[in-house]
Amino acid sequence: MLWPYDKPAAEEFGRIFTALKRMGRPMQQIDIQIAAIALTLGDCTVVTFDSDLAAVPGLSVENWQDSP
Hints:
The chain has about 70 residues and is mainly α. It contains two helices and two strands.
C-alpha cells in the first residue's frame, strides 16, 4: 500500500521536526517523514527495528524484532 506525502503530512513534518529539535533529539529526515505520514493517517502503528521513531511524540511504534 502507498500513502501520500501530502500537505497535511508536510505540515506534521514541520511540527515533529521542531519538537525534536527543542528536545535536542536529531533524527533522519526520512524517519520524520514516515512518522508524519503515520500521524496524519490516524490510528496507525509503525513497525520498525529502528528505535529512533519511539522519540516522536504521539507516534505508536512496535518493534517486532523483540517479539517472541
